[in-house]
């Protein structure tokens, strides 16, 4: 597809998509991971991003290498603690669903991801903090079939955000199933 066709296609999906979707990022320290997360946020229309812990800074030039100009398109707030970030998301009307391989978590396809939902992801090395897991309204994990410990955090974020959007899109009528370019 030509860039103008992609723009038109994006516009069509933007008009149809109404659910509010947000993200809380806790202590994702690698700039390339945060950049990739920002690009995914821009792609799926994340309304707000809360950053906490020692997460990388969206303005860091190293973030820009993977964000590719999308950082400016994602409204974000940095808060100094996880309880503050959770409170901000709750105050804004979101149900917080932490994405983590944690006890009590339900598989992604069964998670309460309908709008208004704020997904939360954790640090590359130690995952979501106990405070985040305790303060979330629900926990979900992405099932893994291979013999791996976990996904890269940016990849896990993309899978979870895509699933949250898919929930709304799956409820659309046949018109929305038209192939791109029609
Ligand atoms: C690399 S993982 C952290 C792994 C860490 N070694 C641990 O054992 O907790 C970083 C983040 O990615 C997300 N993540 C990665 N794989 C996941 C999965 N299969 N299900 C849910 N979240 C996942 C979580 O948000 C996690 O906090």
Topology:
Blueprint: H1 3-16, E1 21-26, H2 31-43, E2 48-52, H3 61-67, E3 76-78, H4 82-91, E4 95-99, E5 106-107, E6 117-121, H5 130-135, E7 138-141, H6 153-169
The structure holds S-adenosylmethionine.
Give a written overview of the molecule.
There is one protein chain. The protein has helices at about 5-15, 30-45, 60-65, 80-90, 130-135, 155-170, and strands at about 20-25, 50, 75-80, 95-100, 105, 115-120, 140. Strands 3-2-1-6-4-7-5 form a seven-stranded parallel beta sheet, with helices on both faces. Helices cover about 35% and strands about 15% of the residues. It has six helices and seven strands, in the order H-E-H-E-H-E-H-E-E-E-H-E-H. Helix 2 (about 30-45) crosses helix 3 (about 60-65). It is of the alpha/beta class and about 180 residues long. It starts with a helix and ends in a 13-residue tail after the last helix. It has a single domain (about 15-175), classed as SPOUT methyltransferase, trefoil knot domain (Alpha/beta knot, 3-Layer(aba) Sandwich), CATH 3.40.1280. It is globular, with a radius of gyration of 16 Å. The structure holds S-adenosylmethionine. S-adenosylmethionine binds near residues 99, 100, 144, 149 and 153. S-adenosylmethionine (SAM) binds near residues 101 and 126. One of its GO terms (biological process) is RNA processing. Keywords: Methyltransferase, Transferase. One of its GO terms (cellular component) is cytosol.
């Amino acid at each position: 597809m030509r860039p103008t066709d992609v723009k038109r296609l994006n516009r069509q999906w933007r008009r149809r998509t109404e659910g509010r979707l947000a993200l809380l990022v806790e202590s994702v320290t690698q700039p390339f991971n945060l950049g990739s997360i920002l690009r995914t946020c821009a792609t799926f229309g994340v309304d707000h991003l809360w950053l906490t812990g020692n997460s990388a800074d969206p303005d860091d030039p190293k973030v820009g290498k993977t964000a590719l100009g999308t950082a400016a398109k994602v409204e974000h707030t940095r808060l100094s603690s996880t309880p503050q970030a959770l409170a901000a998301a709750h105050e804004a009307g979101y149900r917080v669903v932490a994405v983590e391989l944690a006890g009590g978590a339900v598989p992604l396809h069964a998670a309460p991801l309908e709008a208004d939902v704020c997904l939360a992801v954790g640090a590359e090395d130690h995952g979501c903090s106990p405070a985040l897991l305790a303060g979330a309204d629900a926990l979900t994990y992405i099932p893994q079939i291979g013999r791996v410990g976990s996904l890269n955090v940016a990849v896990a974020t993309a899978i979870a955000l895509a699933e949250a959007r898919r929930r709304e899109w799956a409820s659309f009528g046949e018109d929305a199933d038209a192939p791109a370019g029609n």
